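Incident log, support desk, overnight shift.

02:14 A customer reports that sequence design results differ from what the structure should imply. Their input is reproduced verbatim below. On-call engineer (initials T.W.) acknowledged and began investigating.
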């Protein structure tokens, strides 16, 4: 059934009908079946190929739902790990910021229109935070065997600070987007009222 509706069949059919028109006009003569079949074949060969359908990727808001679920699993993982007080404080600040950014509501609506922002959150939740904490846990064990090296707590604190700063920039960009939207609406209302 797909071939019946295809471009190749439709183009071949149109040229085949033109061949029948030539036959009825008396131009094809006794070779009319060859003319009709040849024009059908030429139309089928010259027609552009079918385009494959565009893939249906999930929109950013659906991706945010997946990131929220992953963030819940990350919270369970982090609850079972004991960190030094300074790193634990930085991790708490980071998770609070992530919670605010992933909270359903107007922030999620704005974030749903920003695929780069969704990617930044996804990378932080799925890769950066777990890797930083896991690396700290594994490195802490080795540090006991080689005293005098830089403590892994310091690296963990720096990593968490850098992640927090990146997410703060994302939150600032979202705030700026909303401020521009509000200013734009104010100008629109001013222009409309004359």
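02:41 Re-run completed on a clean worker. Output:
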């Amino acid at each position: 059934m797909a071939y019946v509706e295809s471009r190749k069949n439709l183009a071949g059919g149109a040229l085949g009908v033109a061949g029948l028109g030539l036959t009825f006009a008396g131009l094809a003569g006794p070779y009319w079946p060859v003319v009709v079949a040849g024009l059908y074949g030429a139309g089928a060969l010259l027609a552009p190929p079918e385009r494959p359908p565009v893939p249906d990727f999930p929109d950013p808001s659906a991706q945010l739902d997946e990131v929220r679920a992953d963030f819940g699993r990350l919270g369970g993982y982090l609850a079972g790990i004991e960190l030094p007080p300074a790193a634990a404080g930085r991790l708490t600040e980071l998770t609070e910021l992530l919670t605010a950014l992933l909270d359903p509501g107007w922030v999620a609506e704005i974030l749903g229109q920003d695929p780069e922002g969704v990617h930044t959150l996804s990378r932080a939740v799925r890769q950066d935070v777990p890797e930083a904490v896991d690396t700290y846990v594994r490195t802490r064990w080795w540090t006991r065997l080689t005293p005098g090296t830089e403590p892994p707590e310091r690296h963990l604190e720096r990593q968490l600070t850098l992640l927090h700063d990146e997410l703060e920039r994302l939150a600032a960009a979202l705030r700026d987007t909303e401020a521009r939207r509000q200013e734009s609406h104010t100008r629109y209302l001013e222009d409309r009222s004359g």
